[in-house]
Amino acid sequence: MFGKTKRKIVFTVVFSLLALMVVTLATIYVSNRIALDRGSREMLQTFAERYSLEEQAPRPGEENRPDDAPEINPGKMNEPRGERPWKNEREFRLSTFYSVAYSKDGEVLEVNRGENDIMTEEALLETASSILDTGKQSGKVGSMTYLVDERGGYTLVAMIDGTINDNNQTMLFYRMLMIGSAALTVLVVISVFIANKIVKPLEENDKRQKRFVSDAGHELKTPIAVISANSELLKRQIGQNEWLDNIDYENERMSDLVKQLLSLSRAENGCVPKETLDFSKLVGGEVLPFETLAYEKGKRIETDIEPDIYTEGNPNQLRQLVSILLDNALSHGTTDDIGLSLRKEKHHASLTVSNGAEATGAGQPERLFERFYRSDEARGEEGSHYGLGLSIAKAVVEAHGGQIRAEYKNGKAVFTVTLPVRK
User: Fold this and answer.
1) Residue 51 gets which letter from DSSP?
2) Start-to-end C-alpha separation, the chain
3) How far is Cα 35 from Cα 183, in angstroms, rounded to an integer?
4) Looking at residue 380, what DSSP letter applies?
5) Which domain holds residue 277?
6) Is residue 173 part of a domain?
């Protein structure tokens, strides 16, 4: 039980911190990506604004250029007089720009492959052509951020190479992933330590309670036996009377309570021998005596037991489990019908016992397994019902590696037990 509590604490802490870490790292990554893309677009916009194709460079076959004409560097930035040259600006100097200028009829007027000549002219023209085919004015193709600018006499396709930014982003991602993994490992260790610290006092308190139940049960056996013996002697001396009958009745109830306390202690300790047994046969055999009791109360038990279901367990405890569920159904059922079914589902056996239940008891079905918990209807009953039966059933199921749950469906209380089956 406390192992599950520790795992839940560790899972909750780690999941919460992991979610916070993922959101934080994702925010950093995305915001950095957005900032880089914005910076690239702004520089590309500046590049396009300063670009000027004032005069086209002579192409092969053109020989009519005057010798005294000023030298033209086509496709370069337009640098107004008095401004600092763009290539001296740090952000531009560290970036690689490409451009292709097209005439209105689609003729290539100028190709600028940047100062590093990383891309071939053919590759650059192919990229520019694919950009024009998209019909978009701006965007991104691979690592290239592009801008299409319609000028008065030509169309400019300007591009900036974002390979360095992409590589930096990839490096940032892997670094965040490594740091996050290391932080997560540390968090798991810290969470386990914290869970142990939180659960340890509860675990020790639970052990003390179990030890008290066991010790009290053993210690009460002696005075109960003495009271019974003295009552018998008094009956022989003074004869039968109502006071002695009351003593015997209450002493018998106390004896039953002690037996249940000891059964609960043994079931919770889980130190019982186990063997391979036919669970179907065991359940069927335990139903038989309860059919007689049900008949006396004007009720009937409807069974649906699948044969040949085997499990590893202690036969005495498993008989006690079935007996508790059937006794609970007979004692607290509000209808004449009690249902019991046993089915094999994948790797476990499913035992279900159902009985009619009042709507007032449908609020907190999980509390039925608490020690000494009884519904208001059960408190008014006479007999040996102390609110320990279902606690014992739960302890037996958990000692056998199974689960038990209670729920209310369509006016019925349904108890379902799942136990691992022998393969």
Assistant:
1) B
2) 25
3) 26
4) T
5) 273-420
6) no
Q: Which amino acid is at 40?
A: S
The pLDDT tens digits for 140-157 are 888 888 999 887 788 899
User: Per the structure block, which two tokens stand in for 313?
Assistant: 């367990």
C-alpha 249/C-alpha 53 separation (Å) is 113
Q: Cα–Cα distance between 318 and 331 in angstroms, integer?
A: 20
Domain boundary among 161, 188, 204: 161
Same domain, 415 and 287: yes
Residues 412, 283 share a domain: yes
348: left (phi over 0), alpha (psi -120 to 50) or beta: beta
On whether the CB atoms of residues 195 and 9 are closer than 8 A, the answer is yes
Between the alpha carbon of residue 180 and those of residues 11, 165, 170, 175, 358, the distances in Å are 17, 22, 15, 8, 53
Answer whether residue 352 is part of any domain.
yes
Lowest mean pLDDT segment, chosen from 82-86, 124-128, 411-415: 82-86
Alpha-carbon distance of 333 to 287, in angstroms, equals: 16
More confident residue, 199 or 117: 199
Average pLDDT over residues 313-336: 87
User: Does the residue 294 lie in any domain?
Assistant: yes
> 163-238 vs 2-50: helix axis angle to the nearest 10?
160
CA dihedral for 274, 277, 279, 284, sign (positive or negative): negative
CB 127 within 8 A of CB 140: no
Strand partners, 102: 108, 155
Are residue 281 and residue 415 in the same domain, yes or no? yes
Residue scoring higher pLDDT (3 or 419): 419
Residue with the larger pLDDT of the pair 420 and 368: 420
Contact (CB, 8 A) for 353 and 415:
yes
Q: Quote the CA–CA distance of 165 and 258 in Å, as a whole number.
A: 76
The label of the residue with tokens 């036969």 reads 315
Residue corresponding to tokens 């007089």: 81
Q: Count structural domains, the chain.
A: 2
pLDDT of residue 65 exceeding 60:
no
Last residue of a domain, one of 141, 161, 181: 161
Question: In this structure, what CATH number is given to the domain that contains residue 389?
Answer: 3.30.565.10
Highest-scoring range by mean pLDDT, 87-96, 149-158, 282-291: 282-291
Distant-in-sequence, close-in-space partners of 408: CB < 8 Å, separation ≥ 6: 357, 361, 362, 365, 414
Whether 78 has a pLDDT exceeding 60, the answer reads no
- Does residue 61 surpass a pLDDT of 70? no
Q: Assess if residue 35 is contained within a domain.
A: no
Q: Specify the CATH number for the domain of residue 105.
A: 3.40.1840
Please give the structure tokens belonging to residue 38: 């914005």
